[in-house]
Inverse folding.
């Protein structure tokens, strides 16, 4: 059954894979594609200390579930699960999981790619990149704007 | 009627706050709300034209300018999403 939501803690990938295979093997699935996003430790020659993820809840969780359900209805697809973490994540920590099981590898790869792109472009999740040369808002598909000031900072009171 | 407006990501910095409650006349549309917000926070209108697309979610769904607002609605102003 399709699942999708915002989470705080990392997933156990072995558990996730085992659960999907158990749910789908008898129904005819034979391929599982798992995308895992993780925090980059270096961007534009600058060292990243952490990414601060924020989601507009409960709507972000609802959209993740809707996307999982939408792609699970695709021909040949048996199961789609999508989870996105929030909070302060350090380089190397996992951030996003998109898992698709299908009857064929072609279907699994294609649907995982489409579902991933929809998550990245549609779900209200935002990140602030903290690096050695300052803090940057990441906008859309990787554009970075240096943070000038934060709400509540002295110059705004 | 009262409408709650929330700001996310860089828009929170530009507005200088996380949320605001605005009073609008009955029958007001999302377009009217945006005009009011831009008059209160001219920097938001400036950034929407220059640096960042400003997107409005009405009660959590992507809104259209012609959407009519109701008392208690929540509008979130967001830049293009950056999950992943």
């Amino acid at each position: 059954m399709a699942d999708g939501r915002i989470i705080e803690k990392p997933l156990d990938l072995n558990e996730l894979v085992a659960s999907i295979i158990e749910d789908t093997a008898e129904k005819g699935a034979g391929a599982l594609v798992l995308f895992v996003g993780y925090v980059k430790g270096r961007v534009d020659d600058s060292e990243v200390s952490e990414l601060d993820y924020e989601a507009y809840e409960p709507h972000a969780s609802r959209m993740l579930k809707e996307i999982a359900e939408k792609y699970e209805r695709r021909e040949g697809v048996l199961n789609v699960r999508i989870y996105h973490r929030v909070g302060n994540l350090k380089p190397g920590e996992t951030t996003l999981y998109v898992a698709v099981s299908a009857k064929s590898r072609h279907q699994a790869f294609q649907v995982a790619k489409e579902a991933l792109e929809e998550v990245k472009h549609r779900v209200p999740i935002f990140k602030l990149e903290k690096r050695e040369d300052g803090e940057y808002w990441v906008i859309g598909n990787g554009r970075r704007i240096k943070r000038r000031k934060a709400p509540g900072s002295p110059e705004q009171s | 009627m009262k409408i709650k407006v929330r700001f996310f990501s860089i828009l929170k910095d530009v507005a200088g706050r996380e949320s605001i409650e605005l009073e609008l006349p009955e029958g007001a549309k999302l377009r009217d709300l945006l005009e009011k917000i831009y008059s209160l926070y001219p920097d938001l209108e400036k950034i929407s034209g220059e640096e960042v697309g400003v997107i409005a979610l009405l009660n959590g769904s992507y809104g259209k300018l012609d959407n009519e607002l109701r008392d208690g609605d929540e509008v979130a102003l967001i830049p293009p999403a950056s999950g992943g």
About this structure: The first helix of chain A runs from residue 13 to 24.
